[in-house]
Amino acid sequence: MKGTLGAAKPIVAALDTSTAAMAMAIVRGDEVLGEVQSMAERNHSVEVVSKLKALMADCGVTADTLDGIAVGRGPGSYTGMRIGVTVAKTLAWAWNKPIVGVSSLEALAYGSVSAEADGSEHWYVPLMDARRGQVYTAAWAAGGEINTTWVRFAPDAIRLMADWVDELADRASAYSEFHEDEGSLTIVVCGDLEKHEDEAARLQQLCEASGVRVLLSPSLMEGRSSALLGAARLARGEREDVHSFVPNYTQLTEAEVKLREKQAAERDSR
Fold it and tell me: What is the pLDDT of residue 245?
């Protein structure tokens, strides 16, 4: 029987190559059938198709029984995003399957959600290094008064880490003013923290005075997060146009910036 999104538990394959970790997974509803995580960033283009097909075989899933494809659309590595999205679009077109893009930052944040609910509100803040003191980042909230609903409150963007810390600290302080219980808010900073440890520690210090706990949780991309988020989107009837769908580049590549600067200089010299 061929896959259909009308099924009670649709089968969705997901892949994300926006970071150094090539992550992929296959889910049936909310059940993870299998997943792969590889750190061979330079081999993403060589291995992604073979690893996905091997994963499908291991899970007993074929192109006919697959209901849809989810792919991390970035932000992140320029080349990595292009590889993942191109492969996903090609397979979706060849297999005649619906495709949906998932924010790579959202998947990174979703992978840090704890199954244990302590009653407090949690903010999930994923980080990907963007060089020169910058990060790709966003923010989601769950738990507490919003009743565990996964809610975005800051868009995917490239930000100066120092400014982002100040903004989060101000938000946390304002939040604590309206909540008398100390510890009613926990901020989980996840993802690529290695080059931003000092600023992350500064966030902890700034929030301590407000009674807000900040947890630093270095983490890698997990395929299951992209798959579960993508499956939920597909179940709601959301999908991309397979031909016009492109990654979320967030900013121009360095080469494009230099080209535009050169073109502007040439125009000014005329």
Answer: 96
pLDDT > 60? residue 4: no
Domain count, the chain: 2
Summarize pLDDT for 240-252 with one digit per residue, the tens. Answer: 999 999 999 876 4
Give the C-alpha separation, 247 to 141, whole Å.
24
Q: Which residues of 63-79 are buried (b: 16+ CB within 10 A; e: fewer)?
A: eebbbbbbbbbbbbbbe
Q: Are residues 154 and 211 in the same domain?
A: yes
DSSP-based three-state secondary structure for 118: coil
Q: Are residues 119 and 181 in the same domain?
A: yes
Let me know whether 88 and 182 are in one domain.
no
- Whether 269 is covered by a domain: the verdict is no
* Structure-block tokens of residue 229: 């988020």
* Residue 140 host element (H or E): strand 134-143
Structural domain including 190 reads 112-218
Read off the pLDDT band of 47 (50, 70, 90). confident
Lowest mean pLDDT among 56-60, 69-73, 246-250, 251-255: 251-255
- Per the CB < 8 A criterion, the answer to whether 157 and 138 are in contact is yes
